[in-house]
Amino acid sequence: MVLGHWVTVDRVGQAASDVDFLRSVRPIVEFLGGELVADGGNGEFPIERNGSVIAHVRNAELHGALERLIETVEREAGEELGAMSRSQKQVAVRTLDEQGAFLLRGAVDRIARAMGVSRVTLYSYLNALERRA
């Protein structure tokens, strides 16, 4: 049985409840940038249910991670970073910081461009977060 493009379940005796379970966790896995696959390899996380491995989670690659984080923030806010108000941008920076976006190389420049602000402004948002902590 094929579940969309994300996992093939063709094991003999695969329970319908397992298929339903995988369908329910799919949005969470994809939100985190991962992918569900039937057979796992090195570094993939097995999903066990009732004592059996029913699928694996393939970790997200770092390539494109910053774009995925930005897209998630924009989707949650309902608008693009550049169209946000100052206070919305500050919330977006806090969210991106909590998700580790600023640990990625080039993140400050990329996020500042997307927001339509200078690096100095973006650093002021980050510094304000540190002062509140």
3D architecture notes:
The protein has 133 residues and is an alpha+beta fold. It folds into 2 domains: 2-58, no CATH class; 65-132. It has 5 helices and 5 strands. Strands 3-5-4 form a 3-stranded antiparallel beta sheet, covered by helices on one side. A two-stranded antiparallel ribbon has the order 1-2. Strand 4 and strand 5 (52-58) form a beta hairpin. Helix 2 packs across helix 3, helix 3 packs across helix 5 (119-132) and helix 4 crosses helix 5 (119-132). It is elongated and about 55 Å long. Residues 1-12 have low confidence and may be disordered.
Q: What secondary-structure arrangement, pairings included, does this model have?
A:
Layout: E1 2-3, E2 7-8, H1 16-31, E3 35-37, E4 45-49, E5 52-58, H2 65-77, H3 86-98, H4 107-115, H5 119-132
Antiparallel strand pairs: 1-2, 3-5, 4-5
Give the percentage of residues in beta strands.
5-15%
Alpha carbon gap, first and last residue: 50 Å
Q: In what order do the strands lie side by side in the largest sheet?
A: 3-5-4
Please state the average pLDDT score: 84
- H/E order of the elements? EEHEEEHHHH
As residue ranges, the low-confidence spans are 1-12
Alpha plus pi helix count: 5
Number of domains: 2
